[in-house]
């Protein structure tokens, strides 16, 4: 298949991508979190194409993207807590899981009776949804098991020849996927996947905010979000998180070979190691989130690297999402120095 390369800086190109989706095709597009791969959420044949292009497991449901939270009640049973969350955080990097309506086809939700609703902040994405006239079902636009794409080139590398078009846009400002929450009561919710909307922020509108155990452990039970059980974001090399000072890390790496590091701006020695990737300042979790997936993809391209040692990130704010994604890339391997 020939994949048409379009630009979201051009209104006509956004309309072309919208036509692709309206007529049953699949199109990749930028959002503020990561690039998505979209199809008409009411069309099972179109949605099936997404699963095939990505090699996505058939039991991992897709998020439904709308151009306005006001349309949520067309696709899901909303409740007062949803309305409060929507007023505060939509558009934005938040997905809320609600009981689904039949306007969303079962292929999108993998037969579940719930659906994830998200309204992206990035304006060209909302225009695409509006012009298509559809609710757009979209997972991240990567091959399943690879780090999510945060630049157009990541999508081109993964999906050229497999999808109808790629609507290229800005690099993704948040850089990690949306926070996924499930409403569990009148004033309670559970975080199934951490992201740009943090637990502290959610606590401003919801009295009881819990975190699903699958976020921090190799959970053996059933996570609230099926996607959390898969080993995600994994480069070809082994990833290991190192918990310690720069000095301790430099000492630990003395006798190691065929490795590189993901480190911080402040790490004067580690920065100089071959193919080291500087994630940003130690104290800047937003910058680390923005760059993490590019770091993992960059490491992937260097065949000589057999082990990637990553600095332990700060876990507060969006840093918690960075930590969660790194943990998964490392298959939960941490060395405490
Ligand atoms: O930021 C994002 O959320 C990006 C952009 C494109 O919007 N999308 C994204 O989609 O990350 P995906 O498919 O890569 O991740 C969706 C996550 C998965 O962990 C999935 O299991 C969960 O959301 N999910 C979707 N629908 C669900 C449902 N009804 N119940 C529980 N979990 C659900
Ligand atoms: Mg994904």
Give a written overview of the molecule.
The protein has helices at residues 11-22, 44-54, 72-75, 80-89, 106-109, 123-132, 152-159, 199-203, 246-253, 285-301, 319-329, and strands at residues 4-7, 27-29, 36-40, 63-65, 94-99, 114-118, 136-138, 165-168, 179-185, 188-193, 208-211, 238-243, 259-263, 277-278, 307-311, 334-336. The chain is α/β, with parallel strands linked by helices. The protein has two domains: 4-215, DHBP synthase, CATH 3.90.870; 238-336, Threonylcarbamoyl-AMP synthase, C-terminal domain (Rossmann fold, 3-Layer(aba) Sandwich), CATH 3.40.50. Helix 8 (199-203) links the parallel strand 10 (188-193) and strand 11 (208-211). The mean pLDDT is 95. Residues 139-140, 148 line the site of magnesium ion. Magnesium ion binds at residues 139-140, 148.
């Amino acid at each position: 298949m020939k994949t048409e390369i379009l630009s979201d800086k051009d209104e006509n190109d956004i309309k072309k991508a919208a036509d692709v989706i309206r007529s049953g095709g699949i199109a990749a597009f930028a959002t503020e979190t990561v690039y998505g791969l979209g199809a008409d959420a009411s069309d099972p044949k179109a949605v099936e194409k997404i699963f095939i292009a990505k090699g996505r497991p058939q039991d991992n449901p897709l998020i439904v993207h709308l151009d306005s939270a006001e349309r949520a009640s067309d696709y899901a049973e909303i409740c007062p807590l949803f309305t409060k969350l929507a007023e505060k955080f939509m558009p934005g990097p938040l997905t809320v899981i609600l009981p689904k309506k039949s306007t969303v086809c079962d292929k999108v939700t993998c037969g579940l009776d719930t659906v994830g609703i998200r309204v992206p902040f990035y304006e060209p994405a909302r225009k695409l949804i509006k012009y298509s006239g559809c609710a757009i079902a979209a997972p991240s636009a990567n091959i399943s098991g690879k780090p999510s794409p945060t630049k157009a080139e990541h999508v081109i590398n993964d999906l050229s020849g497999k999808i109808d078009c790629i609507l290229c846009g800005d690099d993704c400002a948040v850089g990690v996927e949306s926070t996924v929450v499930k409403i569990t009561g009148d004033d309670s919710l559970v975080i199934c996947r951490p992201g740009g909307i943090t637990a502290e922020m959610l606590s401003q509108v919801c009295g009881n905010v819990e975190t699903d155990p699958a976020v921090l452990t190799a959970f053996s039970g059933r996570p609230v979000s099926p996607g959390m059980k898969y080993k995600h974001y994994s480069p070809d090399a082994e990833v290991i998180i190192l918990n310690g000072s720069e000095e301790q890390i430099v000492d630990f790496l003395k006798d190691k070979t065929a490795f590189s590091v993901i480190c911080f701006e402040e790490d004067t020695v580690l920065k100089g190691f071959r193919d080291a990737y500087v994630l940003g300042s130690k104290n800047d979790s937003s910058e680390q989130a923005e760059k993490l997936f590019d770091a993992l993809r960059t490491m992937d391209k260097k065949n000589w690297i057999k082990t990637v040692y990553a600095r332990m990130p700060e876990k507060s704010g969006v840093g918690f999402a960075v930590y969660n994604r790194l943990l998964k890339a490392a298959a939960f391997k941490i060395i405490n120095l």
